[in-house]
Every structure is written in C-alpha cells, then in structure tokens.
Amino acid sequence: MKSLPVGFSFRTLISLHPLILQRQDCQFQAILGFCDSDSHLLESIQEEFLHPEEIVYLKELKLDKTRSEFLRSRYLVKKALATYSLQEEPTEIQIGKGIFQQPLLLTRYHYQLDLSISHHTTLAACLIFPQQHPMSLDVEVCNPSIISLTKNEVTEHEKKLYCNTRESETIFFTRLWTIKEALSKVLKTGMMVPFHKLETENMTYQGNIVTSYYTDFIQYKAISFQRKDSICTIALPRASTLLFSTQIP
Fold first, then answer.
1. What pLDDT, on a 0 to 100 scale, did the predictor assign at position 6?
2. Cβ(122)–Cβ(101) under 8 Å?
3. Name one GO molecular function term (predicted).
4. Cβ(93)–Cβ(86) under 8 Å?
5. CA–CA separation, 99 vs 196, rounded Å?
6. pLDDT of 103-119, one tens digit each?
7. Are 72 and 42 a contacting pair, CB within 8 Å?
8. Per residue in 151-192, pLDDT tens?
9. Cα-based torsion angle of the residue sequence 164, 199, 19, 83 in order, rounded to the nearest 10 degrees
10. 37 Cβ contact list (under 8 Å, min separation 6)
11. Cβ neighbours, 10 Å, residue 81
C-alpha cells in the first residue's frame, strides 16, 4: 500500500448531511453525501473499502476519468452507509447495477435502503434513502458548454421560465438539466426518455434553494441548490417536505 501524506485524513474529503423527509403521517431519514477527493489517494487504499467484485471491475476500467468516478462514488457510498450501523464491513457491501444501469445496494441482508449516485470531474455525490420513499439526485458542474446541450432539450415554456429569472444562462440551464435528469433517475428511465417530456412547470426561489415542479409528473418535485461550482438537484415525492439537518458547504 502506498504511503499517505503526513497528517492526511480521508474524513476531510467527504461531507455527509442527514436529511429529514417529513410526510403528513410519518417521517423518513436519508443521507446526502459529497466527496471531493484525489482519486490516486483512494486507489492506494481501495482494498479497505471496495468489495472483491468491485476491485475486479476497477481493474477493467482503462480510462482515468472512469476509474476516478468509480473510486470516489464507492468510497462515498460506503462512508454514508456507515452512518446506518450496518452489520457488514465496507468490503462486504457491493454497489452493483440494474438493467437500466441504476445503482443497486447488494448485501447479505435486506436493509430496505436504496441509493442514487452522481458525479462529475472531481466530485461525487450520493443519496441514501429508504425504499419506501423514492428519490434521486443529479449533480453537474456549471459550465457554459451545457447551454447548447440543454437548449436542444427544453420546451418553449421552459425558455419562458428563463426569461423570468435573474440567473445567468449557465446556472439556469445547468439547473434545468439536473432537474430533468434527477426525475429520469427516479423514474429509472435515464436518458432513454426524451427530456422535453420531463418539462418543468415552474420554479420558486428561496435563497440558495430552488423548488421546481413538473408539468406531467405532478407526483414529484425537485429541490436544487448551488454547491461551490456545481448545481445539485434532488427529485422526491411532491408531498414530502425536505429538511436539511446541516448546512451544505
């Protein structure tokens, strides 16, 4: 194993944020996590958190970008799962994939937990939540290049939403992309559904939190916020109130 820098702590690379999901008749809890890490350092300790099957899969990944995303996301998910006091060690838990490439929690025990993963360049984000309460998240870096990509997928109504906002083009269309992709994930359709079918009906702004509602999928809403140079969006049931227990750094 490679030696780590003196005084280095992996705990400084992640931030975990408990979420409360308030319903009219009950309450659920979830965990939102972020990992800003040097993937080379994570690779040096991979045997401490990767499942044997994940190590095999990592060896098959040739692109540095893909390897980095895989390491950050798995490290983050294992740390987030540790807050649930599971009966297994991180190396006994495997994050697999379903037929639509959605992440699956594979363990010896049925914890009734589900997860959503997203990442870009140097950031991984994850959401751990109870299976009874479907959710998902998407995170994208604010980059002007996303404007042309998103504009091809927006409706005339969504273009009017932009005209009524004070956000820059980059932030607005990055946010809109995450709102659509988060919904596609919770529906488990991914990019296979035309994004104009995931139209945003309206947006309400309250500080750094933006709440959006969908035109056709009225049972869901989206909560998005800016974190450093990224936009993070969580899709969840419309009737649920999302409460942050800690401030998002």
1. 43
2. no
3. holo-[acyl-carrier-protein] synthase activity
4. yes
5. 24
6. 999 988 878 999 999 99
7. yes
8. 788 999 999 999 999 999 999 999 999 999 999 999 998 778
9. -140
10. 10, 13, 14, 71, 72, 75, 122, 124
11. 23
54: its two tokens: 């994940």
Task: State yes or no: pLDDT of 47 exceeds 90.
Answer: yes
At CA 14, angle to CA 40 and CA 23, rounded to 5?
140
Amino acid type, 127: L
Token pair in block for residue 119? 């990442």
Assign 3-class secondary structure to the chain: CCCCCCCCCHHHHEEEEEEEEECCCCEEEEEEEEEECCHHHHHHCHHHCCCHHHHHHHHHCCCHHHHHHHHHHHHHHHHHHHCCCCCCCHHHCEEEECCCCCEEEECCCCCCEEEEEEEECCEEEEEEEECCCCCEEEEEECCCHHHHHHHCCCCHHHHHHHHCCCCCHHHHHHHHHHHHHHHHHHCCCHHHCCHHHHCEEEEEEECCEEEEEECCCCCEEEEEEEECCEEEEEEEECCCEEEECCCCC
- Residue 5, pLDDT score: 46
* Residue 11, pLDDT above cutoff 80: no
The amino acid that residue 76 corresponds to is L
